[in-house]
């Protein structure tokens, strides 16, 4: 038995290069239950991160009572993340929404489905038939629904209403992953495989706290590090985390300077001749310009911009340049930071010029964050066109029009799809009049929250919120729809390395809550969307039928699902797309043949200028004659849009802890997870704390030009001049009489990457002041991971008997 709060990663199962990762099966069951007490085990996968850990849901008396990892699965080989071990308890929470709510006289009151849907449909018809039509509809969805639900929503938006104003919270999450993959390779889709961990000789971790955010992937890396021939480890993060402490080399760069670092590293690699000339010549475009640009970034300049020793820039380049099988992971420290897409593309460049792609151990993970974000992108629920199609390619539009049997003109394709930040802008300005929010909590997760609250409160904006709980966002809605969730509905989703899993319904949802698919289908029916022959536009009623419709849409595209079926996904391991006649068992790695989907007929985008975001025209793109080669993009470093000044002298960055998921609607309702990190804290370097007279546990005020929050100080290993706030803490569980502002996004800035349009959650300027003495009581911050204390005497975070889980190497 292991207390997986005290030890989130559990026992090691070391293994060597090229060996198979050993099985270790993790199980957690409610209270004193044993495996014999479980009525049924129902196949599923994790829903609290993008790793795609396969697990079975334990059911007893019609309730979920626990989970157990699936030993047969290629992704986790039985292991389960702490959030997944304990987080399912939120399904059983007594405060689940069980009936629809509508706003009456300023208050939300319970009603029936007919009334709630009737209001949405009446408002929709009024708007659609009036002047401005589709332009009034905005949809803001998620990276946490199922593939079948996104595809259905995408068809409703694109072929039913014809609105381009649809996006996911994936804009906040993995828009940069998609943008960087498109920009370099021509289309979305992760080149690497999780099995690359088994083969690599070096791992580079770029702005990714993998130990806390993809714990099972980290377990795999740690098991390699403890076995024979361990891979070298490089970590780039302004904080001290479990990853940077394990690393052979840690570059604690100033947040917002990734681009300068990467330019400097590429310069060193090129100048030392650590690149593969033959690969560069045959398979890439843009090497000469890349050389010219990075030439301006000698180690001393990089050291100055990033505030790290020049010798460490050289050492990092040596580590990267000396590796034969390099694995890179990139996540929010890049995606939500300054020059997000440009910097992420430099990691692709590094792999391309070294020929480190498409073979075992040489992998790139432009990571996802949310469990089903890949599907939001593939199916077009983020506004992109389904099947990774190019909005600017008339032939792609014609294909969709044929598939859906609608006029091509109905499908919005006259401009790029509207990104989430712009949808909220339109709502602010009043042109978007109906905003339908599903499975996301923007009142806590978007930047500059006082503005977001103002937008959502506007009386003229009709807000629909579809959720499990009365969230901070739902409180502001006109109609609240109670949704079923994971474990209560069936569907599929795809993880970071393209592994598709089936998640089956295990139990009934509470009260009148309905699956999101059924809600969208009900809306389509009531709106009476038709195709050209007068038949219903949406022709499916079950998840499996929706999946089959999606398969047709994916046919022949990079994300080809045509070889998959629900039956094939049952029983064994998840399967990686593309899975089709040519690859009946799925595809472990993309680009093994070094042919990239950059051909103008195939590519998902004609590209953008990575500095400004300006879109290239089709002819400009064709003139480059990519012919299946990948693009090496060269970009100069530019400072962040907000840098410290006298009034706001420190840099703020934000992120996560291992125990909480986002705005905590689930993990805040699981006792073991909640008590491990019950309230907000702020991480400070001891030197800054000393200068400001702040001790561990003192109450601190953090103010930016947009707002102010209060948090208890945790003196940690973060770099001097930088403070870190977890963004998990909204106000749903605060005493209504004392809602002291504590959400990190009160402070963050409305600014985004020009290419991916992902908001810059990782750089803002703030002032930090001491407000009150903490009386020697430590901050409510975990002692594990990034918030590990730099001072002695803070008691360790433990879960105790209630958190004891089973972990068995080799199986059951
Ligand atoms: N426990 C837990 N796991 C999760 C989630 C969760 O909420 N909780 N959410 C899931 C989702 S949706 C996502 S997107 C992922 C996110 O996973 P991560 O990206 O790993 O998480 P973050 O904490 O947002 O940021 C990662 C690191 O970036 C560093 N950083 C900040 N600014 C910079 C910078 O300018 N440059 C560099 N190089 N680094 C910087 C931070 O110090 C932080 O340690 O996690 C997924 N997994
Ligand atoms: N400052 C700062 N802000 C950030 C970030 C950061 O690092 N720093 N990270 C950003 C990132 S990467 C992300 S992904 C976002 C996450 O931001 P959000 O998406 O707002 O976070 P969640 O708390 O996951 O919200 C998901 C909502 O969906 C509901 N839900 C769960 N399952 C279902 C379902 O099956 N059906 C329905 N209808 N509802 C469901 C949950 O109850 C919850 O209310 O936050 C972003 N905001
Ligand atoms: Mo995310």
TrEMBL record:
Name it. Molydopterin dinucleotide binding domain-containing protein
Task: Tell me where on the tree of life, at the top rank, the source sits.
Answer: Bacteria
**Ranges where the record places region Disordered:** 783-812
Q: Which UniProt keywords apply?
A: 4Fe-4S, Iron, Iron-sulfur, Metal-binding
Where would I find the 4Fe-4S Mo/W bis-MGD-type domain in this sequence?
39-95
Q: Biased-composition ranges for Low complexity? A: 783-803
Q: Which Pfam families match?
A: Molybdopterin, Molydop_binding
What CDD domains does the database record attribute to this sequence? MopB_CT_Fdh-Nap-like, MopB_Nitrate-R-NapA-like
Keyword flag Transit peptide:
no
User: To which species is this protein native?
Assistant: Micromonospora avicenniae
Keyword 4Fe-4S present in the record's keywords: the answer is yes
GO MF annotation terms: 4 iron, 4 sulfur cluster binding; metal ion binding; molybdopterin cofactor binding; oxidoreductase activity
């Amino acid at each position: 038995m292991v207390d997986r709060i005290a030890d989130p990663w559990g026992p090691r199962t070391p293994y060597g290069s090229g060996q198979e990762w050993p099985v270790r099966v993790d199980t957690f069951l409610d209270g004193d239950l044993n495996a014999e007490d479980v009525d049924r085990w129902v196949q599923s996968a994790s829903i609290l991160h993008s790793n795609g850990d396969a697990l079975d849901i334990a059911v007893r008396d019609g309730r979920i009572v626990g989970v157990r990892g699936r030993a047969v699965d290629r992704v986790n080989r039985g292991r389960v993340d702490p959030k997944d071990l304990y987080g399912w308890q939120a399904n059983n929470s007594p405060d689940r929404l069980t009936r629809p709510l509508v706003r009456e006289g300023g208050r939300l009151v319970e009603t029936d489905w007919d009334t709630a849907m009737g209001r949405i449909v009446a408002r929709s018809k009024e708007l659609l038939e009036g002047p401005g039509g589709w332009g009034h509809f905005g949809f803001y969805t998620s990276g946490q629904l199922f593939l079948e639900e996104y595809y259905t929503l995408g068809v409703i938006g694109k072929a039913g209403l014809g609105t381009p104003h649809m996006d996911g919270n994936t804009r906040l999450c993995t828009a940069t992953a998609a943008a960087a993959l498109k920009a370099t390779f021509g289309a979305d889709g992760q080149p690497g495989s999780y099995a690359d961990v088994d083969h690599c000789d070096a791992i580079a971790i770029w702005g990714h706290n993998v130990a806390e955010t993809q714990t099972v992937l980290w377990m795999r890396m740690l098991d390699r590090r403890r076995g024979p021939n361990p891979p070298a480890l490089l970590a780039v993060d302004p904080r001290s985390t479990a990853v940077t402490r394990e690393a052979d080399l840690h570059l604690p760069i100033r947040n917002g300077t990734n681009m300068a670092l990467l330019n400097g590293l590429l310069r060193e690699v090129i100048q030392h001749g650590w690149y593969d000339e033959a690969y560069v010549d045959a398979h890439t475009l843009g090497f000469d310009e890349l050389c010219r640009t990075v030439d301006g970034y000698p180690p001393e300049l990089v050291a100055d911009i990033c505030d790290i020793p020049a010798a460490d820039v050289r050492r990092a380049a040596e580590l990267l340049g000396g590796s034969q099988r390099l694995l890179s992971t990139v996540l929010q420290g890049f995606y939500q930071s300054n020059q997000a897409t440009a910097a992420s593309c430099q990691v692709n460049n590094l792999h391309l010029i070294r020929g480190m792609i498409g073979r075992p151990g040489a992998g790139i993970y432009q990571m996802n964050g949310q469990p089903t974000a890949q599907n939001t992108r593939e199916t077009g629920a983020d506004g992109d066109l389904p099947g990774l199609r190019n909005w600017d390619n008339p032939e792609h539009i014609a294909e969709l029009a044929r598939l859906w049997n609608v006029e091509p003109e109905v499908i919005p394709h006259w401009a790029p799809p509207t990104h989430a930040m712009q949808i909220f802008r339109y709502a602010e300005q009043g042109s978007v009049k109906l905003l339908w929010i599903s499975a996301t909590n923007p009142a806590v997760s978007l930047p500059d929250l006082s503005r977001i609250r103002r937008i959502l409160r506007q009386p003229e904006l009709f807000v629909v919120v579809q959720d499990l709980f009365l969230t901070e966002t739902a409180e502001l809605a006109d109609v609240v729809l109670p949704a079923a969730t994971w474990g209560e509905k069936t569907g599929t989703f795809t993880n970071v390395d393209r592994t598709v899993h089936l998640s089956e319904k295990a139990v009934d949802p509470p009260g009148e809550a309905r699956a999101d698919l059924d809600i969208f289908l009900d809306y389509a029916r009531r709106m009476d969307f038709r195709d050209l022959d007068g038949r219903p536009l949406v022709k499916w009623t079950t998840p499996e039928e929706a999946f089959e419709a999606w398969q047709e849409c994916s046919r022949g595209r990079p994300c080809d699902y045509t070889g998959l079926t629900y039956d094939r996904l049952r029983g064994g391991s998840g399967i990686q797309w593309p899975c089709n006649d040519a690859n009946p068992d799925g595809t472990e790695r993309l680009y093994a043949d070094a042919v990239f989907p950059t051909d103008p007929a195939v590519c998902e985008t004609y590209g953008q200028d990575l500095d400004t975001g300006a879109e290239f025209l089709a002819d400009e793109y064709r003139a480059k004659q990519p012919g299946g080669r990948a693009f090496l993009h060269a970009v100069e470093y530019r400072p962040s849009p907000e840098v410290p000044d006298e009034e706001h002298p420190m840099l703020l960055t934000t992120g996560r802890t291992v125990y909480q998921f986002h705005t905590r609607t689930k993990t805040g309702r699981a006792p073991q997870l909640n008590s491990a990190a019950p309230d907000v804290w702020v991480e400070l370097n001891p030197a800054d704390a000393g200068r400001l007279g702040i001790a561990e546990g003192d109450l601190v005020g953090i103010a930016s030009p947009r707002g102010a929050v209060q948090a208890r100080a945790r003196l940690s290993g973060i770099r001097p001049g930088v403070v870190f706030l977890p963004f998990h803490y909204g106000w749903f569980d605060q005493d209504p009489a004392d809602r002291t502002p504590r959400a990190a996004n009160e402070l963050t800035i409305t600014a985004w990457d020009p290419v991916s349009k992902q908001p810059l959650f990782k750089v803002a300027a703030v002032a930090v002041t001491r407000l009150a003495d903490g009386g020697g009581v430590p901050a409510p911050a975990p002692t594990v991971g990034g918030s590990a204390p730099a001072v002695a005497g803070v008691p360790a975070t433990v879960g105790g008997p209630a958190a004891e889980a089973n972990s068995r190497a080799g199986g059951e």
